[in-house]
Design brief:
Helix content is 31%, strand content 27%. By secondary structure, it is α/β, with parallel strands linked by helices. The strands form 4 sheets. It has a 6-stranded mixed sheet with strand order 6-9-10-3-11-12. A 4-stranded antiparallel sheet has the order 2-1-4-5, covered by helices on one side. A hairpin with a 2-residue loop joins strand 1 (8-17) and strand 2.
Length: 262
């Protein structure tokens, strides 16, 4: 795989829950070293698409390629084995543990039957340094003492720790103030600059315009368009989200679908 080749490529993805057809022939391309923003209104199918990529759901049909090879992803372990990590909106951090133990939660390292605290602390510190994180005083701080932006930083660093190749971020700035949002967006950009493929799910168009290289717009379970961020502006993205079309970009009116999706 080269830098010009997609790290993730989905073709013709379909997913239904009973009689509800949630995803309709969805295509998505994620490039290494780039941030791909995934946007869409509530019910457009974003969560279903991401959970399918992460192995929580199985797609009904379509092709899933990772690093140019067809992949079979039946559960989250399959996705993790490929190098895909997801940072969900709830972050799944434990307030009563410090930064190190949160970063290794469920994947603790042991030596002679006990936790290898020295190695875990070193790896956690090295990962944070590699992401140029300077907002944490110590990797031994309790997570309960951290701000929202710092918590998001720990969750993202945990995803990167496991030699991930692609990171999916679900609304990483949703509950943050202006300064903390800037810190997290800078971190998102650094993930891509370090060569990872990044999918950023966001409702904040300012964040999307600031940090994304391309934007993929879902509309009623269809991919209305995936375009370079330089080809659209704020209002164009809003039109794609709300109507599935903006000017010459998007779904032809004859092809537009209606229905309940999730």
């Amino acid at each position: 795989m080269t830098a010009d080749s997609p790290i993730l490529e989905l073709k013709g993805i379909n997913k239904s829950f009973g009689a509800v057809h949630v995803l309709h022939d969805v295509d998505l391309t994620v490039m290494p070293g780039q941030v791909t923003a995934l946007v869409g209104d509530n019910g457009a199918g974003k969560s279903t698409l991401i959970k399918g990529i992460a192995g929580i759901y199985s797609f009904d049909s379509g092709d899933y390629f990772f690093e140019g090879k067809r992949a079979q992803v039946h559960d989250p372990k399959d996705a993790n084995a490929l190098g895909i990590e997801v940072v969900y909106q709830d972050l799944a951090l434990c307030d009563n543990l410090d930064v190190v133990h949160n970063m290794f939660l469920g994947r603790e390292e042991t030596k002679a039957g006990t936790l290898d605290e020295i190695d875990m602390e070193k790896r956690a510190t090295d990962t944070l340094k590699g992401l140029s994180v300077r907002t944490l005083k110590s990797v031994r701080q309790q997570v309960s003492s951290l701000s929202g932006g710092q918590r998001q930083t720990v969750a993202i660093a945990r995803a990167v720790l496991w030699n991930s190749k692609m990171v999916i971020l679900d609304e990483p700035t949703a509950a943050l103030g202006v300064a903390q949002t800037e810190q997290v967006l800078n971190l998102v950009r650094r993930l891509a600059d370090n060569g990872l493929g990044v999918i950023l799910i966001s409702h904040n168009m300012n964040d999307v315009m600031q940090v994304a290289d391309s934007v993929a717009c879902l509309y009623l379970g269809q991919m209305a368009a995936q375009v370079q961020i330089s080809e659209v502006d704020h209002s164009s993205i809003v039109e794609l989200i709300t109507m599935g079309r903006s000017g010459d970009i998007g779904i032809q009116l004859d092809d537009a679908l209606t229905g309940d999706v999730a």
